[in-house]
Amino acid sequence: MIASSALLLLDLQNDFLHPKGAYGRAGQTSPEIAAVPSSLKPIVDLVRARDGLIGATLFTLVVGKGGEPIVSPHLKKLRPFLAKGDFVSGSWGQALVDELAPADFTVEKIAYSAFYMSRLEWMLRHYDIKTLYCAGIVTNGGVASTVRDAHVRGFECVVLEDGCAAFSQDVHRAAIEGLRPVARIATIAEAMRDFAP
To answer: Which residues of 109-145 are buried (b: 16+ CB within 10 A; e: fewer)?
Structure first.
């Protein structure tokens, strides 16, 4: 089973999680979001030890004219603090957090779903992946959108309930409930049994 499965880490980047990242500087975090990398470390280590596949999606702000980031109107309204230099391709801020790095492959994303205008599906088909174990932030945004897109593309999805977080527990719980029709909901411990020898 491990050969046809991948662990997909969604948006666990310095600019989202590190105190010196874009969101940290703006005071935009929650204890649950901050705890996600350490919660996921055991399963990341296990998948790596079993020679499984680990992918990471990296939210990216494309640099436009004058070096200013191209920020979609809805995101600009939600996160007015996003500025020049945030989430730039190849930057420290865009990178997967050190605690979980390195990933076997990374995919830059420009919208909630990691499948939208990206090479994610191409990568997964290349590795003959059938099942995605999804974890990351935020549950109601990038996680939910990516899982739904994976479902309509024929991938089996397992959402690691305690490996995801949102800006509030109520929003997280509602998002998890909303994903039950399209994914198996599991704890990290349950998922680790799937990858065990």
So the answer is: bbbbbbbeebebbebbeeeebebbbbbbbbbbbbbbb
